[in-house]
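Q: Give me a backbone?
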Amino acid sequence: MINGALSYPPFTPLEVPPFGTDILGFTIFAKVIQGFKYTFFIGLLLSSAQILISLFLSILTLYKLGSALLPIFSYLDKLFTLIPKPFLLLLLIGPYYHALLFSAEDVQPAANLEFMLIQLLILFLVGLPNLVKLYHAELTFLFKQDFALASQTLGSSKLRSVRYSFKPQLIELTLNLFFKVLTQNLSLFIYLAYFQLYLGGSLVTQLDASTNYTVTISNEWSGLIGQNINRLASTPWTVLVPLAFYIGLVFLLNGIKRALIGGMQNHSI
């Protein structure tokens, strides 16, 4: 009841503060709070896995057995450079998503978990070759430095040099790459959500006899943006509020990155 009259959603931020509701009547503020843990922790888990695995593979490329991996990653990196990542992800994830919807009348939680794992695996593999190449280039550069050559002359192994001699340089590079990769992954989440490939799957709600409304199950922020993007003109707050939180998160991550890198540089001085 608003002003003595029965009203129906969506409600504006003036009618239901602070951020209004979506077309189903759920408050945007509650969805943003609920979806933060999925947006941040999925991005954090994915980015951490990419960084750690790429560093491990880069160390393997220093040895004879692992050197065969470098041409493969270099080729994949060139291939992924030619094909933009959003379109590549759409080609890889889209068919599985539509097959899932076609094979099941209702999306079950187990199927959504499986779909999210497929999404994360593809995102992981697509971002891996470039990171391996960057780490390998950095390690190759460090091994050519005078202090590294002197250390190897005195009998230090390559693994020991990586663990101890190159530790400051690798930590700084890892921090830079981590925040860069995390920001890129958050952007890719939005690209996927635009095509309704929400992390964790989606549910189709029938508003009336002729209108369906596809919603994200996890309520992660990119999904909130994607499910309402077609209603930007009629209900702009349903898109702009999650987008503002998304932008704020990216600025916060960049601020943390600058503070950490600046602190390391001041400490080294």
